[in-house]
Amino acid sequence: MPVMQHNDLDVYNRSVPHALPSVLYVGWIDQQGYPTGSVQTECLDRLKKLAVDPFRSIRGKVICRACLAAGLSERESIQPEGEIWIQRLNSAGFYAAPVAICHYIETHKYKPPKEFIDALKVGDRGRDKRRFADVIDDLLAGKNSP
After folding, report:
1. Which helix (H) or strand (E) holds 69?
2. Sign of the CA dihedral 27, 44, 92, 143?
3. Is residue 146 part of a domain?
4. DSSP E strands: which ranges in 4-121?
5. Maximum distance among all alpha carbons in the chain?
6. 35: which of 10, 43, 56, 102 is 20 to 30 A away, CA to CA?
7. Is residue 4 domain-resident?
């Protein structure tokens, strides 16, 4: 099973022909070295709702390396795979977070960047109902507006 890790606010380059500067990673944590703190319950609840119907659905599971580092078995460390995309404030771009961000916040006290939390609070601005492939095609063509 894959283990995914990217630094917060790095440029997105997952399964696309070239990096998408208007899309930034958030919440792709590793076993150590990630920011921790509290996240408001309403923000976590919002992420959980978005995780039920992720923007980019991916069949499969990923292993939470933070769980492995805490002594849990590989089987106990499995998380669903998929991506939640949130539109960035003051930008035509997006944040791309793994569905497992809910687990990382709840279990490992991961704290996403403030700008991600602020964008999450705004609502459904980033909840584009178009197919993932269509949005990626637009971004690759230089059309950044959702």
Report:
1. helix 65-69
2. positive
3. no
4. 11-12, 20-25, 56-63, 78-87, 94-98
5. 45
6. 56
7. no
Q: Quick check: is 5 in a domain? A: no
Q: How many domains does the chain have?
A: 1
CA separation for the pair 77, 68 (Å, rounded): 6
Residue span of the structural domain in which 86 resides: 11-140
Q: What is the pLDDT of residues 93-106, one digit of tens each?
A: 889 999 999 999 99
Q: What pLDDT score was predicted for residue 124?
A: 56
In a domain, 52, yes or no: yes
pLDDT digits (tens, 9 = 90+) for 44-87: 999 999 898 888 877 778 889 889 888 999 988 888 888 999 88
Residue with token string 């991506």: 83
Six-digit token string for 98: 């793994």
Name, in order, each residue with C-beta under 8 angstroms of 117's C-beta and a sequence gap of 6 or more. 39, 40, 43
